[in-house]
Write a structure and sequence with these properties.
mainly beta; N-terminal domain of TfIIb; three-stranded antiparallel sheet; 8% helix; binds zinc ion
């Protein structure tokens, strides 16, 4: 298909464009391009301050975090370089010096 956005109401990918409007043939929902940005915004991962995070960013941990399956702790203030955003509950994939690969929650970090 083309790169038209999916229908924000029903998720259908069979949307088409009618001048400034997008139209969904499945549920008859019509919307304007600007509105899709709001929907896409939900996929954005933000840090504890509400700043948008991106792949490759450097972040700082704002809370001591226990490392699952070990006694190690990621200390508050730890800088983590080159993060990778992933979906799910722990939405940041990264590698921390002295600890290794782990996943963090974006709510416990801030952009450095
Ligand atoms: Zn629809």
């Amino acid at each position: 298909m083309s790169d038209l956005p999916n229908c924000p109401a029903c998720g259908s990918e069979y949307t088409y464009q009618d001048q400034a409007m997008f139209v969904c043939p499945e549920c008859a929902h019509e919307w304007q391009e600007g509105e899709t940005n709001a929907a896409a915004d939900e996929d954005v991962i933000r840090d504890s301050n509400g700043n948008v995070l991106q792949d490759g960013d450097t972040i700082t941990v704002i809370k001591d975090l226990k490392v699952k399956g070990s006694s190690a702790v990621v200390k508050v203030g730890t800088k983590v370089k080159n993060i990778r955003l992933v979906g799910g509950d722990h939405d940041i994939d990264c590698k921390i010096d002295g600890i290794g690969a782990m996943k963090l929650k974006s709510e416990f970090v801030k952009k450095a």
